[in-house]
TrEMBL record, chains A, B:
<dbReference type="InterPro" id="IPR011008">
    <property type="entry name" value="Dimeric_a/b-barrel"/>
</dbReference>
<dbReference type="InterPro" id="IPR007138">
    <property type="entry name" value="ABM_dom"/>
</dbReference>
<feature type="domain" description="ABM">
    <location>
        <begin position="33"/>
        <end position="87"/>
    </location>
</feature>
<keyword id="KW-0503">Monooxygenase</keyword>
<dbReference type="Pfam" id="PF03992">
    <property type="entry name" value="ABM"/>
</dbReference>
<dbReference type="InterPro" id="IPR052936">
    <property type="entry name" value="Jasmonate_Hydroxylase-like"/>
</dbReference>
<keyword id="KW-0560">Oxidoreductase</keyword>
<dbReference type="GO" id="GO:0004497">
    <property type="term" value="F:monooxygenase activity"/>
</dbReference>
<protein>
    <submittedName>
        <fullName>Heme-degrading monooxygenase HmoA</fullName>
    </submittedName>
</protein>
Length: 112, 112
C-alpha cells in the first residue's frame, strides 16, 4: 500500500475524506489485500487527488482520500466494489470508525 | 499519547487540521515527549475538539486536531510553546510534511 501517496499542497475546495478506524483482530491479510485493492481502485476514479494513510501498531489507522469535488467523493462512496468492501469491513475488520468529509481551506507543505 | 482521542461525530463547520509528516531518525524519545506535551497543551486551548493520530512503522504519521472555529485553530497555531516546538520539529524530527486546514461538511460514526 502506497503510504503517503498525497503529501502535497491542495487547492482550496479540495475534498478530504477522513476515515479513522479501529480494527478487530480478524483476517489481517484479507484486510491488507482489500486496502491495497481499494487504493488502486480509488486512483482510477474521476477527481482522485491522492491518499495519505497511517496505521498504529494496535491496528487503528487513519486513511484520508482527497477529491477534486464533493461529487467525486460521493461517486467513490457509491462505487459498487467500494460499497461491497465497506460491508465486508463492517462485518469483519472494523470494530468502530468515524468518517468526516471536509473542504480544504488552506494547504501548505514543507521539506527539509 | 492518546491515540484516537476524537473518533466522534462533528458538527458542520468544525475545523480539521490535517498534519501528515515524514520523520527523520533523530531523537525519537524527544519527539515522543514533545508529541505528548503538545497533545496535553492543545487540549487546554479554547475550542479544542479532539485529536486523532496514527503513525506508521517507518515513522511517517498523521495527526488531525479538531477545532470549533478557524480562529481557534489559528490560536493553536500561534500558541508560543507550539510555535517553538514546531521550529524544533523542522530542525530535528521532520524531513517533510503537509498541512491542510479543512472545514467539516458531514460527519458519521459507526460501532459494531
Amino acid at each position: 500500500m502506497a503510504l503517503f501517496g498525497a503529501m502535497t499542497v491542495f487547492t482550496k475546495g479540495t475534498i478530504a475524506v477522513i476515515f479513522c478506524a479501529r480494527r478487530t483482530d480478524a483476517d489481517d491479510s484479507g484486510y491488507a489485500d482489500a486496502a491495497d485493492r481499494m487504493e488502486k481502485l480509488a486512483a482510477l476514479q474521476s477527481g482522485y487527488r491522492g491518499i495519505d494513510h497511517a496505521r498504529n501498531a494496535d491496528g487503528s489507522g487513519i486513511t484520508i482520500s482527497y477529491w477534486a469535488t464533493d461529487d467525486d467523493a460521493k461517486a467513490w462512496r457509491d462505487n459498487p466494489e467500494h460499497a461491497a468492501i465497506r460491508e465486508t469491513g463492517r462485518g469483519k475488520w472494523y470494530s468502530s470508525y468515524s468518517l468526516h468529509v471536509a473542504r480544504v481551506e488552506r494547504s501548505y507543505d514543507w521539506e527539509k
